Amino acid sequence: xxxxxxxxPSRKEITTLTGEQGFSHIGFLDLAQFTEWYIKSLSTxxxxxxxxxxxxxxxxxxxxxxxxxTALPIMESPSSEHEQPxxxxxxxxPFASDNYYKKAVGKHKIINTELRKRTGxxxxxxxIFCNSRFPEKAFAAAAGIGFIGKNSLLISRDLGSGxxxxxxxLPWFPENSKDIKNALPxxxxxxxxxCMICIKSCPTRAIIKPGVVDRxxxxxxxxxxxxxxxxxxxWGTRIYGCQECQDRCPYNHKTKEPGTSGRSNPxxxxxxxxxxxxxxTRNDIKSLFKGTTLDQGWIKEQYILRNALIATGNHPxxxxxxxxxxxxxxSEDKMIKEAALWADVRLFPEKEKxx
Length: 355
Description:
Elements: H1 11-20, E1 25-30, H2 31-41, H3 53-61, E2 66-73, E3 89-92, H4 100-119, E4 127-130, H5 136-142, E5 147-148, E6 154-155, E7 163-170, H6 197-201, E8 207-209, E9 212-213, H7 219-222, H8 232-235, E10 238-240, H9 244-247, E11 269-271, H10 272-276, H11 282-285, H12 301-314, H13 322-328, H14 334-347, H15 350-353
Parallel strand pairs: 3-10
Antiparallel strand pairs: 1-2, 2-7, 3-11, 4-7, 5-6, 8-9
């Protein structure tokens, strides 16, 4: 056990620390109380199946007692920073245009350092999380930061889903942490009422019921995973990410007409030729996306190249890149070759007739 000789920071003090780091929403939970509720709720499909209860019980057994959950606003870059290129280009979703996960973790490391100074606890008695296997959306909903919408995303009432969740497990829980026994979060989609905009706007109809998304049909999930050829035409000219359900959510554009895109900036575009000529090595392709989510280690270069080939096939000016498509038709990577062959036939349908 750590030798604690300092007064534990209060909820107010921690709130000040997190606010100084730019977090817009802050919540606190009793880890044991949340875990009890979460395990019971799994059988009713009220929380994400992405997390497993063992992660929470293991944390409790290691001496962790509190949950600090925060939301970092996703700030849209001015359009001038991402001038729209004239040549055939693909889009990166706005939420991936900056490495918000890395930024959020970095901010929590600063907070963690200060908390350790004030408490005497060692580094091992804290656990920072972001885009993790912990039930982060359930944390946020239980702490009152927002609610889980029909599209399964955490929606804050003032910023919509334009936030990145992150947080820290603490070796104590601050006073006045939210008592979820007296204020259980609503089931997914309950606060959306009768609104069905996100479900209807999904290109692949991946939202099969409120709060439940079929990952095998979700374009966002396909960004870095398997994509069946039947979904190639629906991919559009994306390079990474899909947020159709977010763009049309009324909470993301309260001053605009519901059902229309609430974002003035669709995200940065990059000439497809640059990706198709870069190759498949990390230095070649990853260098095009420095400082964005696509530079994360878990995103494979081959997926970015495949996405770019499909985007080329869907682009109205994709024929200009025929020679690059041809090159990738010779790839030894089955996924790359399939995408290149599809793009070729998509752009030049007469070739399919002649085979």
